[in-house]
Amino acid sequence: MLHRLWLLIALLGPCAQAQELTLRTAQQSGSVVKYDPDNKLRPGLCLEILRAVERVDPGLHFTGLEQRVPLKRVERLLAESRVDAFFCLLKSPERERQWRYAPVPLYTIRHVVVQRAGDSRDIDTLEQLSQASRSKRVLVMRGTAMARHLVNASVAIAEVASEREALQMLTMGRADIIYGQDINLQRHIADHHMNDKLRLGRTVFQEEPQYLALRPDLPATHEERLTLALRRLERDGVLRQLTEKYR
């Protein structure tokens, strides 16, 4: 793939990026870390990466951002080739059977737990999490790869629509533990002034990179062009700087 990418650059030179290309996409609803267009200071990490791609390749444009759809709908749109690209998705074997991914990692999320500040238990393994879930189910975001990961580890779960809903249930005592992405949970805890009520666990259960997902039949030249833009953002430190902005 890299050989083909650099061959394309050598053959087309500056004209490669000058050619107009418009790709269909969408925004994920219910995930303000990824997409929060009403917030002028932090409009969403994935939205900012998308805009950065457009800046480094001025001939490349994305349409469809007026669509704000839940994760399950994003997956259907990709699998049915009704969008061309989506920023950002985790990989899983099931997903990789349905669509492709550009090879450049956009940012990395860490799997952590959140508990009430007065809960002194340290949950350091999935076995301990499974045991704790016997009294109260562990909250996890609905339809995510994390939910399937916990089920496979014999953790009893309750799926919720958003981190905000999960945090409200935790503070009300309707659950004892949330399992989720550090960057999302930290954002919601800070935004809702819950730092004195809740705490993140000390253990990172897993680290996973987020990627640009592509419809299964996207032309190889389009994928190569997107990859070129992302590699430039990676090389120039833009992806790292944007990630740090949202942590």
Topology:
Elements: H1 2-12, H2 15-18, E1 21-24, E2 27-28, H3 45-56, E3 60-63, E4 68-69, H4 71-79, E5 85-90, H5 93-96, E6 100-101, E7 107-116, H6 126-132, E8 138-141, H7 145-152, E9 157-160, H8 163-171, E10 178-181, H9 182-191, E11 198-200, E12 206-214, H10 220-235, H11 238-246
Parallel strand pairs: 1-3, 2-4, 8-9
Antiparallel strand pairs: 5-12, 6-12, 7-10, 7-11, 7-12
Helix pairs in contact: 1-10, 3-10, 3-11
Question: Concise description?
Answer:
InterPro entries: Solute-binding_3/MltF_N. It is built from eleven helices and twelve strands.
Task: Give a structural overview.
With 247 residues, the protein is α/β, with parallel strands linked by helices. The chain folds into two domains: 2-107 and 209-246, D-Maltodextrin-Binding Protein, domain 2, CATH 3.40.190; 109-206, Periplasmic binding protein-like II (D-Maltodextrin-Binding Protein, domain 2, 3-Layer(aba) Sandwich), CATH 3.40.190. Helix content is 40%, strand content 22%. The protein has eleven helices and twelve strands. The strands form four sheets. Strands 5, 6, 7, 10, 11 and 12 form a six-stranded antiparallel beta sheet that branches. α7 (145-152) links the parallel β8 (138-141) and β9. α3 (45-56) crosses α10. The protein is globular, with a radius of gyration of 19 Å. Residues 5-15 have low confidence and may be disordered.
